Amino acid sequence: MHSVSSRIVALSSILFNATTILLFCICIFTYIADKRRAPCNLQIVSIQPVTTHNVGKNVVFNPQIDLREYFHLNVKQIFVYLRMHNKNNSEMVWSEIVKKNDSKRFYERLVNTYRFFDIADGAKIRFELRGCVFPYVGIVQDKLLGSVVTTVKRSGK
């Protein structure tokens, strides 16, 4: 006869193994799942100077993206952000966390969340819309959703 403690140990061992196999299968599913890229037509509407004591710039942009294709049973949330690259550095200028139950479509005009200051007039800048996909189980993936190159118009012209 087996004692109660040995039965509990055997049951917990079986449950642990089953849970580990389930988590491994979910992780594998994430990599096998359809990896279509959602079409993104990133548009920079304008880059405007800000009239405050610290002269910065605002960027108005239209991401035109539907993130529904990125969500499946293992995706918890996506951190979507707009990154600006110039010849000296790169900065994040806008971000938003899109959770499973949130609206996943971005077709309206948006304004940057974070101010930026070190852009010379006439400079060429590359904007990238990126997303960090956070799964319940597995590795966080950083994906390029769209990019565009634009030139900053000279002030006063």
Automatic annotation (TrEMBL):
Record's subcellular location: Endoplasmic reticulum membrane
InterPro entries: SPC3 (IPR007653)
Membrane topology of the entry: Single-pass type II membrane protein
UniProt keywords, alphabetically: Endoplasmic reticulum, Membrane, Signal-anchor, Transmembrane, Transmembrane helix
Biological process terms in GO annotation: protein targeting to ER; signal peptide processing
Keyword Transferase set for record: no
Signal peptide stretch: none
GO CC terms in record: signal peptidase complex
Superkingdom of the source species: Eukaryota
Transmembrane segments: 14-33
Keyword rRNA-binding listed: no
PANTHER family: MICROSOMAL SIGNAL PEPTIDASE 23 KD SUBUNIT SPC22/23 (PTHR12804), SIGNAL PEPTIDASE COMPLEX SUBUNIT 3 (PTHR12804:SF0)
Cited function: Essential component of the signal peptidase complex (SPC) which catalyzes the cleavage of N-terminal signal sequences from nascent proteins as they are translocated into the lumen of the endoplasmic reticulum. Essential for the SPC catalytic activity, possibly by stabilizing and positioning the active center of the complex close to the lumenal surface. Essential for viability.
UniProt family annotation: Belongs to the SPCS3 family.
Name the UniProt record assigns to this protein: Signal peptidase complex subunit 3
